[in-house]
Protein backbone atom coordinates (compact mmCIF):
# COMPACT_ATOMS: atom_id res chain seq x y z
CA UNK A 1 0.00 0.00 0.00
CA UNK A 2 3.06 2.22 -0.06
CA UNK A 3 2.90 5.52 1.79
CA UNK A 4 -0.77 5.11 2.63
CA UNK A 5 -0.27 2.00 4.80
CA UNK A 6 0.26 3.79 8.16
CA UNK A 7 -3.19 5.38 7.88
CA UNK A 8 -4.78 1.97 8.37
CA UNK A 9 -3.50 1.92 11.96
CA UNK A 10 -5.20 5.19 12.92
CA UNK A 11 -7.87 5.07 15.58
CA UNK A 12 -10.02 8.04 16.38
CA UNK A 13 -11.23 10.43 17.09
CA UNK A 14 -8.30 12.62 16.06
CA UNK A 15 -8.37 16.12 17.58
CA UNK A 16 -8.06 18.53 14.66
CA UNK A 17 -8.60 21.73 16.64
CA UNK A 18 -4.87 22.52 17.05
CA UNK A 19 -4.39 22.24 13.28
CA UNK A 20 -7.48 24.33 12.60
CA UNK A 21 -6.30 27.03 15.00
CA UNK A 22 -2.92 27.07 13.28
CA UNK A 23 -4.53 28.04 9.98
CA UNK A 24 -7.27 30.26 11.39
CA UNK A 25 -7.64 33.33 9.19
CA UNK A 26 -5.98 31.60 6.23
CA UNK A 27 -8.10 30.94 3.15
CA UNK A 28 -7.38 27.38 2.07
CA UNK A 29 -8.38 26.51 -1.49
CA UNK A 30 -7.75 23.22 -3.25
CA UNK A 31 -7.63 23.99 -6.97
CA UNK A 32 -8.35 20.60 -8.52
CA UNK A 33 -9.35 19.18 -11.86
CA UNK A 34 -11.29 16.20 -10.49
CA UNK A 35 -14.51 15.83 -8.52
CA UNK A 36 -13.92 12.38 -7.03
CA UNK A 37 -14.93 11.58 -3.44
CA UNK A 38 -12.38 10.14 -1.05
CA UNK A 39 -13.58 6.53 -0.96
CA UNK A 40 -15.28 3.82 -2.95
CA UNK A 41 -15.67 2.96 -6.60
CA UNK A 42 -15.07 6.54 -7.73
CA UNK A 43 -12.68 7.42 -4.91
CA UNK A 44 -9.01 8.31 -4.83
CA UNK A 45 -7.65 4.77 -4.58
CA UNK A 46 -9.95 3.11 -7.12
CA UNK A 47 -9.60 5.78 -9.79
CA UNK A 48 -6.07 7.08 -9.37
CA UNK A 49 -4.31 4.06 -7.88
CA UNK A 50 -4.24 2.08 -11.15
CA UNK A 51 -3.00 5.20 -12.95
CA UNK A 52 0.07 5.10 -10.71
CA UNK A 53 0.61 1.37 -11.14
CA UNK A 54 -1.33 -0.01 -8.15
CA UNK A 55 -2.85 -3.46 -8.57
CA UNK A 56 -6.29 -4.56 -7.30
CA UNK A 57 -5.01 -5.67 -3.87
CA UNK A 58 -3.03 -2.46 -3.41
CA UNK A 59 -6.11 -0.44 -4.36
CA UNK A 60 -8.19 -2.33 -1.79
CA UNK A 61 -5.61 -1.72 0.94
CA UNK A 62 -5.22 1.94 0.06
CA UNK A 63 -8.97 2.49 0.13
CA UNK A 64 -9.20 0.74 3.51
CA UNK A 65 -6.38 2.94 4.83
CA UNK A 66 -8.15 6.10 3.66
CA UNK A 67 -11.39 4.83 5.19
CA UNK A 68 -9.61 4.42 8.54
CA UNK A 69 -8.27 7.96 8.19
CA UNK A 70 -11.74 9.29 7.43
CA UNK A 71 -13.29 7.42 10.35
CA UNK A 72 -10.66 8.83 12.69
CA UNK A 73 -10.95 12.42 11.54
CA UNK A 74 -14.56 13.11 10.56
CA UNK A 75 -17.78 11.22 11.32
CA UNK A 76 -19.70 13.31 8.80
CA UNK A 77 -19.93 13.49 5.04
CA UNK A 78 -16.75 15.35 4.08
CA UNK A 79 -15.39 12.10 2.65
CA UNK A 80 -18.19 12.20 0.07
CA UNK A 81 -17.63 15.81 -0.99
CA UNK A 82 -16.71 16.41 -4.66
CA UNK A 83 -12.95 16.80 -4.85
CA UNK A 84 -12.25 15.09 -1.51
CA UNK A 85 -10.35 12.40 -3.40
CA UNK A 86 -8.17 14.85 -5.32
CA UNK A 87 -4.40 14.32 -5.05
CA UNK A 88 -4.81 11.05 -3.21
CA UNK A 89 -7.04 12.60 -0.55
CA UNK A 90 -5.36 15.98 -0.15
CA UNK A 91 -8.69 17.60 -1.00
CA UNK A 92 -10.21 15.84 2.00
CA UNK A 93 -7.38 17.06 4.20
CA UNK A 94 -8.00 20.67 3.24
CA UNK A 95 -11.73 20.26 3.77
CA UNK A 96 -11.00 18.98 7.28
CA UNK A 97 -9.18 22.23 7.99
CA UNK A 98 -12.07 24.36 6.74
CA UNK A 99 -10.87 24.81 3.18
CA UNK A 100 -12.81 24.69 -0.07
CA UNK A 101 -12.39 22.78 -3.31
CA UNK A 102 -12.56 24.61 -6.64
CA UNK A 103 -11.93 23.71 -10.26
CA UNK A 104 -8.32 24.50 -10.96
CA UNK A 105 -8.23 24.30 -14.76
CA UNK A 106 -9.55 27.81 -15.40
CA UNK A 107 -7.16 29.20 -12.78
CA UNK A 108 -4.14 27.59 -14.39
CA UNK A 109 -5.04 28.46 -17.97
CA UNK A 110 -5.67 32.08 -17.05
CA UNK A 111 -2.47 32.31 -15.01
CA UNK A 112 -0.32 31.25 -17.97
CA UNK A 113 -2.45 33.14 -20.53
CA UNK A 114 -2.76 29.95 -22.55
CA UNK A 115 -5.20 31.40 -25.06
CA UNK A 116 -2.65 33.96 -26.28
CA UNK A 117 0.17 31.45 -26.20
CA UNK A 118 -1.80 28.87 -28.17
CA UNK A 119 -2.70 31.47 -30.78
CA UNK A 120 0.99 32.17 -31.36
CA UNK A 121 2.13 28.52 -31.30
CA UNK A 122 2.81 26.05 -34.10
CA UNK A 123 2.36 23.06 -31.81
CA UNK A 124 1.00 22.57 -28.28
CA UNK A 125 2.18 19.71 -26.05
CA UNK A 126 0.60 18.74 -22.76
CA UNK A 127 0.98 15.81 -20.40
CA UNK A 128 -0.98 13.47 -18.18
CA UNK A 129 -0.25 10.55 -15.90
CA UNK A 130 -2.98 8.41 -17.41
CA UNK A 131 -4.73 9.81 -20.46
CA UNK A 132 -8.15 8.22 -20.08
CA UNK A 133 -11.82 9.11 -20.18
CA UNK A 134 -11.49 11.15 -17.00
CA UNK A 135 -8.85 13.31 -18.70
CA UNK A 136 -11.58 14.51 -21.04
CA UNK A 137 -13.93 15.46 -18.21
CA UNK A 138 -12.56 18.91 -17.50
CA UNK A 139 -9.01 17.97 -16.57
CA UNK A 140 -6.10 20.14 -17.62
CA UNK A 141 -5.21 18.29 -20.86
CA UNK A 142 -8.79 18.79 -22.02
CA UNK A 143 -8.59 22.52 -21.32
CA UNK A 144 -5.25 22.78 -23.13
CA UNK A 145 -6.54 20.81 -26.13
CA UNK A 146 -9.64 22.98 -26.39
CA UNK A 147 -7.55 26.15 -26.36
CA UNK A 148 -5.30 24.76 -29.10
CA UNK A 149 -8.27 23.63 -31.19
CA UNK A 150 -9.84 27.08 -31.02
CA UNK A 151 -6.79 28.42 -32.86
CA UNK A 152 -6.37 25.46 -35.22
CA UNK A 153 -3.11 24.39 -33.59
CA UNK A 154 -2.21 20.68 -33.27
CA UNK A 155 -2.15 19.41 -29.69
CA UNK A 156 -0.15 16.39 -28.51
CA UNK A 157 -0.52 14.52 -25.23
CA UNK A 158 2.43 12.71 -23.67
CA UNK A 159 1.17 10.38 -20.95
CA UNK A 160 2.23 7.52 -18.76
CA UNK A 161 -0.42 5.43 -20.45
CA UNK A 162 -3.13 6.11 -23.04
CA UNK A 163 -6.59 4.59 -22.59
CA UNK A 164 -8.57 6.82 -24.97
CA UNK A 165 -9.23 5.88 -28.58
CA UNK A 166 -8.16 8.28 -31.31
CA UNK A 167 -11.70 9.26 -32.27
CA UNK A 168 -12.58 10.25 -28.70
CA UNK A 169 -9.31 12.13 -28.33
CA UNK A 170 -9.78 13.95 -31.64
CA UNK A 171 -13.27 15.05 -30.60
CA UNK A 172 -11.68 16.70 -27.57
CA UNK A 173 -9.09 18.52 -29.69
CA UNK A 174 -6.17 16.12 -29.24
CA UNK A 175 -4.25 15.47 -32.46
CA UNK A 176 -2.08 12.60 -31.22
CA UNK A 177 -1.32 10.93 -27.90
CA UNK A 178 1.78 8.97 -26.93
CA UNK A 179 2.18 6.52 -24.03
CA UNK A 180 5.33 6.14 -21.97
CA UNK A 181 4.54 2.49 -21.24
CA UNK A 182 4.46 1.80 -24.98
CA UNK A 183 7.77 3.48 -25.73
CA UNK A 184 9.43 1.96 -22.65
CA UNK A 185 8.05 -1.49 -23.41
CA UNK A 186 6.23 -2.12 -20.13
CA UNK A 187 4.79 -0.48 -17.03
CA UNK A 188 7.70 -1.87 -15.01
CA UNK A 189 10.29 -0.31 -17.32
CA UNK A 190 8.49 3.04 -17.31
CA UNK A 191 8.31 3.08 -13.50
CA UNK A 192 11.94 2.01 -13.11
CA UNK A 193 13.37 4.81 -15.28
CA UNK A 194 10.66 7.45 -15.66
CA UNK A 195 12.91 10.45 -16.34
CA UNK A 196 15.04 8.67 -18.90
CA UNK A 197 12.07 7.09 -20.64
CA UNK A 198 10.18 10.39 -20.78
CA UNK A 199 13.17 12.16 -22.31
CA UNK A 200 13.45 9.41 -24.92
CA UNK A 201 9.75 9.64 -25.75
CA UNK A 202 9.88 13.43 -25.97
CA UNK A 203 12.89 13.25 -28.29
CA UNK A 204 11.12 10.74 -30.52
CA UNK A 205 7.99 12.91 -30.70
CA UNK A 206 10.11 15.99 -31.44
CA UNK A 207 11.76 14.18 -34.35
CA UNK A 208 8.39 13.15 -35.78
CA UNK A 209 6.88 16.62 -35.56
CA UNK A 210 10.02 18.58 -36.34
CA UNK A 211 10.29 17.35 -39.91
TrEMBL record:
SUPFAM superfamilies: Glycerate kinase I. It holds the Pfam family Gly_kinase. InterPro entries: Glyc_kinase_flavodox-like_fold, Glycerate_kinase, Glycerate_kinase_RE-like, Glycerate_kinase_sf. It comes from the Bacteria. Keywords: Kinase, Transferase. One of its GO terms (molecular function) is glycerate kinase activity. One of its GO terms (biological process) is organic acid phosphorylation. Belongs to the glycerate kinase type-1 family. PANTHER family: GLYCERATE KINASE (PTHR21599:SF0). This is Glycerate kinase.
